[in-house]
Inverse folding.
């Protein structure tokens, strides 16, 4: 669904590439670990330290790749649309290869990876099916696709992915609203089987960092899903 029907702020809106190009200098200061890293750390169905090869789709500044490396994941490749974000990721020295490119058509080898990840990027895709199909192509038999996303509930409350320029002006990045059921349908059509799911809410840890979010206390703000290549039930 297009975000416009939920928009209550009417921020100026940039494309994904232009938006993250502007946001890059403050991105890691403004995206809290409670949004994504905390959900990754709660996953129980993935044995991170056994993974020899992983691809981090929409890897951005390398926050996810850095966390994966800390868990013992060996060889990590990353791809992102925004060169400026990759410049930051490269400095972390956790990736084997970093590529500027389209996550829906990566050009990476078929069944090349034990693990595919996508963190805080699905809301920028108009259609989820190409994502799940490409993740399926990339992931070898017995592997997993881990996705952590911005919860559609928050988008439906009018809070689009956005950042503030140096002068304080808020700027949005083009986004779409995907119901959680849309993920299930796209994944099922691609062959995936859901083996774990979680949701993160605005709790006391969130409010300690963002006290102005008190009106959203206990609202779901992010979600995680772990998909497995074995579609047999």
């Amino acid at each position: 669904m297009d975000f416009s029907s939920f928009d209550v702020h009417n921020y100026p809106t940039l494309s994904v590439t232009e938006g993250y190009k502007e946001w890059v200098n403050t991105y890691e200061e403004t995206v809290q670990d409670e949004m994504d890293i905390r959900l990754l750390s709660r996953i129980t169905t993935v044995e991170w330290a056994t993974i020899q090869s992983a691809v981090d789709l929409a890897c951005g500044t390398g926050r996810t790749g850095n966390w994966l490396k800390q868990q013992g994941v060996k060889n990590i490749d990353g791809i992102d649309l925004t060169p400026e974000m990759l410049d930051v990721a490269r400095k972390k020295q956790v990736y084997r290869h970093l590529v500027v490119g389209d996550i829906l058509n990566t050009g990476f080898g078929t069944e090349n990876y034990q693990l595919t990840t996508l963190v805080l990027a699905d809301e920028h895709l108009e259609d989820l099916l190409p994502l799940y199909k490409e993740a399926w192509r990339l992931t070898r038999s017995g592997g997993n696709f881990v996705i952590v996303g911005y919860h559609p509930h928050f988008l439906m409350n009018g809070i689009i992915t956005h950042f503030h320029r140096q002068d304080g002006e808020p700027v949005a990045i083009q986004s779409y609203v995907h119901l959680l059921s849309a993920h299930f349908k796209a994944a099922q059509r691609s062959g995936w089987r859901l083996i774990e799911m979680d949701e993160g809410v605005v709790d006391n840890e969130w409010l300690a960092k963002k006290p102005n979010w008190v009106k959203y206390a206990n609202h779901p703000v992010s979600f995680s899903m772990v998909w497995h290549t074995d579609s047999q039930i």
Residues 180-190 form the longest helix (11 residues).
